[in-house]
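Hello Y.,

Per our agreement to keep a running log of every chain we model this quarter, I'm adding this entry. I've kept the format consistent with earlier entries: sequence first, then predicted structure.
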Amino acid sequence: MDAIGELADDRALLGRTSTAERVADILRTRIAEGFFPPGTRLSEDGIGGALGVSRNTLREAFRLLTHERLLVHRLNRGVFVRVLSVDDVADIYRTRRLVECAVVHALGEPPFAVDGLAAAVAEGERAAGRGDWKGVSTANIHFHRELVALAGSARTDELMRGVLAELRLAFHTVADPRALHEPYLIRNREILDALREGRRDTAELLLARYLDDSRARIVDVYAKAVDDPEP
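Predicted structure for the entry above:
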């Protein structure tokens, strides 16, 4: 089944009160999951028909996702899933480091509510056991969303949702997802263990190193991927 065909399965999520925001939520998720890879032109007729929404509603959803830097409008050509530049990827990691490390730094006194983190770590380890590296990537995103959620801030959650969705545009371009994601399984568990044991300073240091190493790795791999798009 193609991406548009699978999108039709999401029509039930709209309920009786279809809105541009809910359409945008569905498309954001589908883009993050790789159903619409970077560079894909989004068909108004196809997506509108699959979801059963009006052209105006869909255009408003496109506008919202363009504002989030997930889509780009090209004059006389249509709307496309954005292709990140190498500078975009580096900037995403700078933003992540600022926000995620600040969240851990401000956690206060233990114990910390790490059940969501533990579930994401277990999800990633199960996916790796199946050889599902796309699933590992998804679990890793869940881990970092749960980490930011420790701040208890709806605004921070919304910010990171957009940042991490944008980051996945880069992940979908990489030819070897196992090499990209596997090394961070154990590092996620190390951060979880430190927080579970109340060692906030250690967790912050581990996270800062993690993000610095990840930035260097993904920028290098992504630069090669966009220079040599054949893989």
